[in-house]
């Protein structure tokens, strides 16, 4: 007899969510979906997903409900509002927030959910739209080990490297460590290309050489060529990265830590937002250096 698949709810069908939800559907789970803009669910509905009229309706219909929306404010509204996920979730079900959000909010959600007999895990991801499409995201979790084990087979449909990092909020703290590493690496990649260009080298050729040496990284090899080509289409929005760096800086301050690389990266990205580039991809940081170049020439 074939085992009955758990029903899964999925809220947030943007750049990341549409691929992640697609893998769950492809594995044969009944999928209940909701997104602020309905049209983004059309392709999944055409493949057999069931559209629900709000987060509460998704939770009522699902054994596991996954969210990957934009900002902590979106998460708070979806989980904690009247008629939201926690109010409507089936007792014994598991809620998983994969949005990059605040560790304190994750801890609060887990506590409120527990009081209703529902488990909530924070499970932010890394690997970008490419990792989401390939089902190869790194997934970092905070929450109780029993719920983690229960949802692991579903998480494995979206990611290759999945780790429980500690209690509620630990997944978001791990993601902040990730974003801090990315912030300074983005500066380094943009500066390296900018220097190569100013020195009269062919930047793409430089990337091909240094991309196999000690400077090699996912960002240098993946986003470096896009900087050279001035292809600033979003895989990861600048406005989302500014949100992440702001959460990380606030957490660092709370911990009594000074992180100058992170602060510098955030200030350059904020300038790009002010100039109207918040909807571009994070590789558009190169614009800041182009401008610096143009002034120097
Ligand atoms: P996105 O394309 O903006 O997707 C977010 C989706 O959530 C949108 O479709 C949005 O609806 C929906 N949404 C927002 N608030 C909602 C609400 N209250 N109710 C229902 N739906 C709501 O962003 P993304 O790139 O997929 O990123 C999603 C999250 O993952 C962000 O926190 C981001 O920082 C994080 N992340 C992104 C990447 C990446 O490379 N893109 C990598 C790792 C982590 P609309 O369609 O109406 O806008």
Automatic annotation (TrEMBL):
Single GO MF descriptor: NADP binding
Q: Which residues form the 6-phosphogluconate dehydrogenase NADP-binding domain?
A: 8-166
- The molecule here is called 6-phosphogluconate dehydrogenase NAD-binding protein
Domain 3-hydroxyisobutyrate dehydrogenase-like NAD-binding: where? 169-289
Recorded hits in SUPFAM superfamilies, A to Z, give: 6-phosphogluconate dehydrogenase C-terminal domain-like (SSF48179), NAD(P)-binding Rossmann-fold domains (SSF51735)
The species this protein belongs to is: Thioclava atlantica
In which domain of life is the source organism classified? Bacteria
Q: Which InterPro entries match?
A: 3-OH-isobutyrate_DH-rel_CS, 6-PGluconate_DH-like_C_sf, 6PGD_dom2, 6PGDH_NADP-bd, HIBADH-like_NADP-bd, HIBADH-related, NAD(P)-bd_dom_sf
An example Pfam family from this entry, by short name, is NAD_binding_2
User: Which keywords are on file for this protein?
Assistant: NAD, Oxidoreductase
Q: Which residues carry out catalysis?
A: 175
A GO biological process held by the record = organic acid catabolic process
Keyword Oxidoreductase appears in the UniProt entry = yes
What PANTHER family does UniProt report for this protein, alphabetically? 3-HYDROXYISOBUTYRATE DEHYDROGENASE-LIKE 1, MITOCHONDRIAL-RELATED
Family to which the UniProt record says this protein belongs: Belongs to the HIBADH-related family.
